[in-house]
Design brief:
Mean pLDDT: 91
Structural class: alpha/beta
Shape: elongated
Number of domains: 2
Number of helices: 3
Number of strands: 7
Distance between the termini: 29 Å
CATH class of the largest domain: Alpha Beta
Largest sheet: 5 strands, mixed
Helix content: 25-40%
Radius of gyration: 22 Å
Low-confidence stretches: none
Order of helices and strands: EHHEEEEHEE
CATH superfamily of the largest domain: Transcription elongation factor, GreA/GreB, C-terminal domain
Strand content: 25-35%
């Protein structure tokens, strides 16, 4: 399996979630299962079935996160110096050529993406158009909402 890019911050968030699942959520659901068993007949015990379902979800998520971390290529954005070139992890300030609206995005891995937080997936149309460009360049992007033109105001590695 090929390595998947992940920022240091994204990897840390996954590690925190993994720690919570293993050390808080898992013991809590194991205790809930034990308590539900004490209530007797398991066939008609809704608490037991709900706890088992929650346990299944937690175990699946633990495996998923461990796999993601094992296959991650963790990139320390602060140590990058791409001479102003837009690369994975760069924070890019853009202006929409049509509306004058300004946007700031950091190009991150698929698992970290959250457009409401300004975290743009490296696989998104905008990010793919930006990669390799420099401050001052104009980029035309085919988006689901139509063609957009952006001017790159700044590129930072923070």
């Amino acid at each position: 399996m090929s390595k998947v890019p992940l920022t240091r911050r994204g990897a840390e968030k996954l590690r925190e979630e993994l720690n919570d699942l293993k050390n808080v959520q898992r013991p809590r659901v194991i205790q809930a299962i034990a308590e539900a068993r004490e209530h007797g007949d398991l066939k008609e015990n809704a608490e037991y079935h709900a706890a088992r379902e929650q346990q299944s979800f937690i175990e699946g998520r633990i495996k998923e996160i461990e796999s993601k971390l094992a296959n991650a290529q963790i990139i320390d954005v602060a140590s990058l110096d791409a001479n102003g070139k837009i690369v994975f992890g760069a924070t890019v300030e853009l202006i929409d050529a049509d509306t004058g609206d300004e946007f700031t995005y950091q190009i991150v891995g698929e698992d970290e993406a959250d457009i409401s937080q300004g975290l743009l997936s490296v696989n998104s149309p905008i990010a793919r158009a930006l990669i390799g460009k420099y401050e001052g360049d104009e980029v035309t992007v085919q988006t689901p909402g139509g063609t957009k033109t952006f001017e790159i105001i700044s590129v930072k590695y923070i």
